[in-house]
Amino acid sequence: MTENKQENLSNRMIKFLFEGAPVRGAVVQSSDEWQNMIRFHKYPENVASLLGQFAAGALLLSSTIKFDGALILQVKGSGPIQLIVVEVRTPLSVRAMAQLREGAEITPDMDLQALINQDNKGQCAIILDPKGRRAGVQPYQGIVPLSGATVAENLEGYMVRSEQLETKLWLAANGQKIGGLLVQKMPGTGGTAAEANDPDAWGRIIQVANTVKNEELLELAAPELLHRLFWQEKMKPIAEDDVSFSCNCSRERTSSMLQQLGYKECMDIIKAEGKIDVTCRFCNQTQTYTPEEVEALFIEANPDAGAKGADPKRPQ
């Protein structure tokens, strides 16, 4: 095994099929890449665990679709966690964030219901945003109530309600590592030869998978985990991919956002603060703009304004 493979063993997703049965699956783990995702944030332990489970779940759901673009998972609720966003982009880069309500009190005993869904009106949305989407074309979006007690139950509920696919998930996370297992009935297989030859496959596989422990999801290498669980089944790995943390924020994107905000609004911030600081909610990195840099943004946005006798600082 090469040195690069050694480094990536704990940041991998393996997709597989059960031979002779209409069932597919995936297992994902991430350690240092997950730590890079949250290292600039000071999430309480239970918040980090919840965010990590959503991140693992989003990665696993992305394994079930052939898609070039971004899968974006959004969870909104009324608790101390106002918003969770996970974005998975092909080829398998991920970023995730949790937005906490200002002044919210978080105690270690708070679970998903207490952290997000105190009024039982929370929502879970999954958005598929294709690469190169044409202007004016809206991405696909499915929204379901946040009705499950766990992250896995909510994502399973989404797949049944929105995608009509029987899917089971087992998810675990802490501040050091995330791990997860997905098993799914393959779509459009009712009555096929594989299902007829092994009608008990789905129930048998789920029964075995239900024995998996959080510690195994986090500590066992994926090949060992799969062997320990499904050693009696015929399995066929179909793909292995590296999981990486990648934030696509940039100076260019931030500058474009300020130009869209408008000259007057930017100058109001400059007048009040003396500068503009824009912090990415994912990587927590800050882009700082001086008054001169903000002025230059709007001259760049409308370079012909001065030649026309207009104020070059203000877009026309």
Task: Describe what you observe in this structure.
There is one protein chain. With 316 residues, the chain is of the alpha+beta class. 35% of the residues lie in helices and 28% in strands. It contains twelve helices and 13 strands. Helix 11 runs antiparallel to helix 12 (291-301). It is elongated and about 70 Å long.
Give the termini distance in whole angstroms: 60 Å
* Overall shape: elongated
How would you spell out the order of helices and strands?
A: HEEHHEEEHEEHEEHHHHEEHHEEH
Oligomeric state of shown chains: single chain
Outline:
The chain has about 325 residues and is an alpha+beta fold.
Topology:
Blueprint: H1 3-8, E1 12-18, E2 23-30, H2 32-38, H3 45-62, E3 69-76, E4 81-89, E5 93-100, H4 112-115, E6 123-130, E7 140-145, H5 151-163, E8 167-173, E9 178-185, H6 193-197, H7 201-209, H8 214-219, H9 222-230, E10 235-242, E11 244-245, H10 251-261, H11 263-273, E12 276-279, E13 286-289, H12 291-301
Parallel strand pairs: 5-11
Antiparallel strand pairs: 1-2, 1-10, 2-9, 3-4, 3-6, 4-5, 6-7, 8-9, 12-13
